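Sequence in, structure out.
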Amino acid sequence: MTAATIANALQRVRTVFARRPEAAIHAEEPAIARWEQGLRVVSRHANGAHIATDMPRELGGQGEDVTPGWLLRAALASCLATRIAMEAAARDIVITRLEVVAASESDARGLLGMTDGAGERVSPGPRAVQLRISISAPNVAVETLRTMIEESHNCSPVQVALERPVPVSLRIDIDPV
């Protein structure tokens, strides 16, 4: 898809949402994760796409697939890269290279439900996340690119989901024995 095609699509959608804001609210396609065996889980999308996860051997997995935590980092990086590409197309900026690296640090004790030396439960989530963006766009001012990236970062849905508390409901269905 060309940058002009993307820019035109974005403008059409912005026009519709400006007239009818309720059209912007929608249910998103669910991710369905099914345990296969051991610690291997396959998540599927309705369009047939799927991705398997596993844990490292040190934690009892086979270590053959990515971990669920890696999927979170991949979602963060790919969402921001997508948002930057969208914004560049909308601004008629030609990007020749774009790479987003999402790294994090976690304490594995949290995953295991352990406590720290003070008896406090260790958080299973990342302690810190770092994003590094490398971009090339000939004949575009550095400050223009920096502003575009910062604005894209603030509009990246995965980024916002990590920064702001999102209510998560839990419903449990147990098959009768």
